[in-house]
């Protein structure tokens, strides 16, 4: 049960029903109980009903629902909640790291132009760390593992390589663009970009 409460399986929408974040059921229950959010009883794209906390406690638990056991009986875990007093869509950048660089470079090796499968790519420091390079957006690119290994501790021009484009800090985008559905929750699909 505690495992269910602490996985990010609840999509948070602003009051305009735009996806802004993902939370754990424990956080969602707190938001609903305090009146900061209402749960959505999603029965399909044609039937979505906002439900306040008091009424949520009385909802029947359907076969497909996750639920937690309480002294009062089982309570359905929401899949989507709506923040009551928040209308903005936060703007953010991806985090500097393998996933962020992969997304910025579109999964394409920046030396060969080849589309890579996840196991084929890694991050290359254009100016190697051993030569004073730093881990920054402007010094890191996605590279095919073999190309990166061949480049080693050399600069691209020393290894006979050239970049497809100069790496840059990614532009800020709406938070919705960064929300993923790793658990494949059906109810999230109508609120997230594909």
Shape: elongated
Number of domains: 2
Strand order of the largest sheet: 2-1-7-3-4
Radius of gyration from CA coordinates: 22 Å
Instruction: Give me the count of strands.
Output: 11
Helix content: 10-25%
Provide a count of the helices: 5
Coarse structural class: alpha+beta
Uncertain parts: none
Largest β-sheet summary: 5 strands, mixed
* Beta fraction: 15-25%
The string of secondary-structure elements, in order, is: HEEHEEHEEEEHEEHE
Q: Kindly state the mean pLDDT as a whole number?
A: 91
Distance between the termini: 31 Å
Descriptive overview:
It is a single chain. The chain is α+β, with helices and mostly antiparallel strands and 194 residues long. The chain has 2 domains: 2-91 and 174-188, no CATH class; 98-159, Orthogonal Bundle (DNA Binding (I), subunit A), CATH 1.10.30. The chain contains 5 helices and 11 strands, in the order αββαββαββββαββαβ. A 5-stranded mixed β-sheet has the order 2-1-7-3-4. A hairpin with a 2-residue loop joins strand 5 (67-70) and strand 6 (73-76). It is elongated, with a radius of gyration of 22 Å.
